[in-house]
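Dear Dr. H.,

I hope your travels went smoothly. While you were away I took the liberty of generating a structure for the chain from your last submission, since the lab meeting agenda had it listed for discussion. I wanted you to have the full record in hand beforehand rather than looking at slides cold. The sequence, exactly as received, is reproduced here:
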Amino acid sequence: MTFDFPILTLLILLPLCGSLLTLACRRSDLAARRVALFFALAELAVCAWICLASLPAAPAGAPAGFFLFEDAAWIERFGIRYTLGMDGVSLIMVFLTAFISAIAAVVSWKGITERIPLYFALLLALEAGIQGVFLSLDLFLFYLFWEAMLIPMFFLIGIWGHGRRIYSAVKFFLYTFFGSLLMLVAIISLYLMHGAQSGSYTFALGQLIHTSVPYGIGLWLYAAFLFAFAIKFPLFPLHTWLPDAHTDAPTAGSVILASLLLKTGAYALIRFGYPLFPEAARAFTPLLYVSAVIGISYGAWVAFAQEDMKRLVAYSSVSHMGFVALGIAAWSPVALSGALLQMVNHGVTTGALFALVGMLDERTHSRELATYGGVWGKAPVLAFFFLLFCMASAGVPGLNNFVGEFLVLVGTFRVSPAAAAGAFLGIVLTLVYTVRLVQEILFGKEKKPLALADLTLREGGILAVLAVVDVYLGVHPGPLLELMKTPIALLTGGK
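The corresponding predicted structure, in token form, is as follows:
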């Protein structure tokens, strides 16, 4: 197979075109659903084709490690180019985006009952923005997609959310937008410095990494990047927007927020932050260690105290993403492999948990733990999947989260035993809140009579697919680790 066709552009345009066509289906809600699902599945099919095809040799002009590359002049006066690239890391994230977006479309099939064409149009537009973030190799283009992601999610929370949806949508937007503005200042500063040194003004990542940045200035520029990415992670103590956004977002919004949007911050730190400012990144490593370790334990501890299931899973995301931050801070091949694998694992497992919470909420119109009890006897299939994904979230061996967390801890221990030991405490706390959640929902005494139907065929299909991925990544993560091997070696220098 060859890749002469601009397939990376197709990965962005396909959901974008689907968004426009879905929006045009204003007179038929069913048509809007079908069009959106078709384009989501088409995007997934293209990603699967790339994975199954024989990877070509790197095109001329492509950075090392990239097997797909597209570059064209865009705004030449300011050195802005349309540059996209795909290596093993971005392939994994692009496939995860397509997979989760298709899941989100199916999850929303019955749950969304108003303004359906607009809802699915925003869902596809959000997918296009996320794909752009994972493929961009020009900092201006990256920033454009980074900001474009905010708009669909803002409206998804603000229009179809619950509770204090306007408050949560505005809080989400302001947090992320403020961090993005600081990053924009840093991007422009780096652009001007590179132009002054080389005479070539460009936003190309491959050229900007060779810019000579004074140590003091590099610290400030990297801090701006780190602040923007840490908000999106989110890292402690910049996480406070996340529980509100998750709690009030529609189910599919929570799935995409946890599975994809949080990963853009971690990915951007790996792709842009460390390569552009290696010395400053090393200087900030102790701070990242502290933030990661505190976030792991804090997120787990606060999750234990929650009475709202959705808020509990939201705080668990703070804890799990702390492991990703820990692996990035260690910046060794083993730890970084674990961090990237954990990004995928968290996306699948936590996305499934949010989907399950949404299914329970549709049946009982309550997310409070006090509402439930004895679900194992009333809806055994739902209870089975709930237990499976809780076990995966807790890092039970044989399921996906275990592999990612194990690699992060092993890789970090070689570099910083104290940080690894602190993170291990978070695993213990994760077991505590997970056992409480399972006991209260599945095996606890029923608080009041509760009519609870078991899963429908659609719901069972969604969870079965996610369960297969969970188990597969738990017992055979080798293909993903092999895809990461070359990019990680190039990023870390093979150390």
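Two observations you may find useful: Residues 7-492 form one domain. The mean pLDDT is 91.

With kind regards,
E. W.
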